[in-house]
Design brief:
This protein is mainly beta. The chain has a single domain (11-290), classed as Neuraminidase (6 Propeller), CATH 2.120.10. It starts with 10 loop residues before the first strand and ends with a strand. It has strands at 11-14, 20-21, 24-28, 31-35, 38-39, 48-52, 58-62, 67-68, 71-74, 80-87, 90-99, 102-105, 120-124, 127-131, 145-148, 153-155, 169-173, 176-183, 189-196, 200-203, 218-221, 226-229, 232-233, 236-237, 241-244, 249-253, 261-268, 273-280, 283-290. The strands form 8 sheets. Strands 8, 9, 10, 11 and 12 form a 5-stranded antiparallel sheet that branches. The protein has a 4-stranded antiparallel sheet with strand order 1-29-28-27, with no helix packed on it.
Amino acid sequence: MGLKANSQEWEKSEIPFDARIVHAMTTNENGYYILGGRLTNSKGRSNETLLITRNDEFQTFKSFEARDGQTLVSTDNKQLLAFGGISEEGIHNDLWVFKNNQWKQVDVKGEKPPKRWGHAAAYMNGKLFIYGGKAEGKGNFHDDLWEWNGTKWKELKSSSKPPGRYGTQFGVYNGKLVLYGGRDHSGNWYKDTWIWENDWKQLAFKRNYEPNASVGFVLITTTNRLFLIGGILKGDSFKEIWEFTGNRWNLIDPKLPFSLDFAAGCYDQKSNSLLISGSSQNTFQLWKLAL
């Protein structure tokens, strides 16, 4: 089925927890998980993991240190993996696994990625991949790609690579990693698309065949499709959905019924739906679109 372009097809519900931004979101057979985030009604951060069941019931679980800018993915064995982020204590490079409704830090042996937040993450072929992010130190950004195989970390080298950045995101398309967007503090707002398949390759597009946003968007991988939703470029926000088709981006809908600040999203295979959680006017919202 094609994506419904009618903005009225989106279903909205309010989440009865504090509004937040720069959180992380994923899904598994239990429902939709939301991790951490920066609370919009204070200067604090959340140390909660929220679970929204498919019956619209809510559960909360205590997480590790309150933080934002971390990543969250679901694994093949129905566990969750969280990496990095920033808290009151500073920037992190710890790896956590969520199983049996509890978080446990993974005891990593050997080399591991430097500390970061605002990085990209994806789970593919039984492995966790992370790229980029804000590093320790003013104006420092990572440009490295790492792979976690369930036992150890390995840095993946390449002949060329995207410039260092944060606010970027990973998707998966046809078994390949797709990296889009991000920014640094030198005035670069990236709208570039890179493919990883044993090496980095930047894709070139004709004008008006790429998304407008640079950060704050949501990149969602479905069973066989990849969507980019919303986002901002400098001071401008965009209520758009784009679909990646391998050699171009197609604008699907330029009239989203919402504009959320630094939202998070995921794909629910059980209902074949796109899910986005985010904050607007100090309310925490969940939006759902059936494909």
